[in-house]
Amino acid sequence: LNARPTYFDLEPKAYQQEMLDQLQIERDHGRWRNLVVAATGTGKTVVAAFDYKRLCQQTGGRPRLLFVAHREEILKQALRTYREVLRDHAFGEVLVGGVQPEGFEHLFATIDSVSVRELVSRCGADHWHTVVVDECHRLAADRFDAFVSAVRPRVLLGLTATPERSDGKPILGYFDNRPDGSPAVELRLWHALDQQLLCPFEYYACDDETDFSAVPWQQAGEVAAIDRLVTGNDVRARLVLDEWRRLTGDPARGRTLVFCVSVAHAQDMTARLNKAGIRALCVVGDTPTDERRRAPEMLARGEVAALVTCDLFNEGVDLP
Description:
Blueprint: H1 14-28, E1 33-38, H2 44-59, E2 65-69, H3 72-86, E3 93-95, E4 106-110, H4 111-116, H5 119-123, E5 130-133, H6 142-150, E6 155-160, E7 185-187, H7 189-194, H8 222-230, H9 234-248, E8 256-259, H10 263-275, E9 280-283, H11 289-301, E10 306-309
Parallel strand pairs: 1-6, 1-7, 2-4, 2-5, 3-4, 5-6, 8-10, 9-10
């Protein structure tokens, strides 16, 4: 894993320093399990890395760290950030799939690897001084819930842009209570836009007239039901292409992420885009690791105009 050379000390931006200061205030009041809610693009991982750097300074060493996420891409990106902030390009190891780390002192691991290898029971609930859970709106899911309920770090830090879950399950209960019941740190999308920290964007919702009334929303079979309605649907696919052209002019000259409901849907749309003259690449969970790693670079260089995916680039990934 290569990190960009860092020849000088990185410094947090002013608003990130405010977030760091707020975390310190929480700990000064005895609250060590904290939730950071910050809009995508404002640098949640950067804040976590600077927070860990401060903990290193306070403890006089490198406290044991476990950084947990659900995707390998998120972990590798986070590890690069920590290495750059700490100016230590040998810091940390990744635990994912069949990779076996040399030690368990500073680990960046997928939740699946943590669960399958029974890491908490093997190493001990209090083995890690600091545990960071990225995209922690997933905490209510079984594996995340079991992990956070079992581990006992000195410092627990949750990171998310979207604490509200579609199933209504709260996540604040995993963290220490504040007097007003709010997260320790909160920088919402609308605040970030108001402060000109992020570029404004536009949403367009196009009615494709597909009848989704029979879909069992938030129940078993939801994805399969949607898949049956959209995959192979010639009329809908043609409408998508027409609206895309209407809004952007020439999709073939742009840079686009296309999110699909299933792998089959992603494969179907990729074939349709290429047939329409839009260079598209299908990137899903089963795509070989090297191809997944190269895909964002191909998009940035203009070698492809669209990456078509299913549940891969929708959280915690920065594209060049």
